[in-house]
Amino acid sequence: MLAYIARRLLLIIPTLFGILIINFVIIQAAPGGPVEQAIAKLQGLEGATSRIAGGSAEVSAGKSSYRGAQGLDPALIKEIQHQYGFDKSAPERLWIMIKHYARLDFGSSFFRDAKVIDLIKEKMPVSISLGLWSTLIMYLVSIPLGIAKATRHGSHFDIWTSSAIIVGYAIPAFLFAILLIVVFAGGSYLDWFPLRGLTSSNFDQMTLGGKVLDYFWHLALPVTALVIGNFATMTLLTKNSFLDEISKQYVTTAKAKGLSNRGVLYGHVFRNAMLLVIAGFPSALMGIFFTGSLLVEVIFSLDGLGLMSFEAAINRDYPVVFGTLFIFTLLGLVVKLLGDLTYSLVDPRIDFDRREH
User: Fold this and answer.
1) Could you say which of 96, 100, 185, 232 would form a disulfide bridge with 165 (CB–CB 3.0 to 4.6 Å)?
2) Per-residue DSSP letters for 327-352?
3) What is the CA radius of gyration of the chain?
4) What count of other Cβ atoms lies within 10 Å of the Cβ of residue 123?
5) What is the pLDDT of residues 25-63, one digit of tens each?
6) Nearest to 116 by CA among 311, 318, 307
7) Which long-range contacts (CB under 8 A, 24 or more apart) does 72-76 make?
């Protein structure tokens, strides 16, 4: 197992940089880069060109490859290119980026006047809080509910819970978030929970117990919205996985040997059925961690990685885009490895070292 873990960890390095290179090539073809964004802002500000170019009011009619640059001083265009690193060729920029990323140096944001790593550290607590607690609660709800539905398939309990699951599946998380705000966060009814932020303004003055309560008080509504909006798929996956295992011959044989239904379910069926559920853990966590929480972050004014990455992509803030992509990919690969290791904990018969020979 240690050899398997070592190989997987070593494979993370070329995978990371392979994904970065592919996305670098794709982004180079996208129109509206940071230089064009800066030019567009200059064209929208009266007199901005003369002020930035050192007070010279002269402009040139020279041609430029950048859209909207016609009429601007070529020296100003070159200055903007140098500022964003676009005075170098694409292969040279790629090589510089790879060298910096090998040292975990993600550079500085084009538009936020801060280092990318500092921005990621600042936004990470929000994304970790939403992703970790939502995924944990979703599994704690979905797995027992899915097992109960499988063992009571066709009963009134199965029918009624299926109705609730259909509602959860049909309505996205952000609509539940709006409903929760209307009902519980000072909307039209109750004012029990805060509407914005991860902590209160006086968080630093609270005791340890008060900080914990304040933290979960702020997380209650956004986490609830994410769980309700995402638990349906996992519940149905658990139910169908257990139903498939319950119908197999070894279950009938185990019951014929005198084992109780509970003994068969948790002694034999559980570890086989849970393999499929565990396989979906990495994608569920990463989906909630980054993409699924974007609108929830906006609605509850939680400034996390999802919102920052979206804004960076819109503004063509390439250092932030590539920095967050690097972190997303690294976390995804590590979580995938943890998922594989969990296989062997649930079913010790799985031996990754033996399968690779």
Assistant:
1) 232
2) HHHHHHHHHHHHHHHHHHHH-TT--H
3) 26
4) 20
5) 887 777 777 777 777 776 665 344 344 344 433 333 344
6) 318
7) 72/39, 72/42, 72/43, 73/49, 76/42, 76/49, 76/52
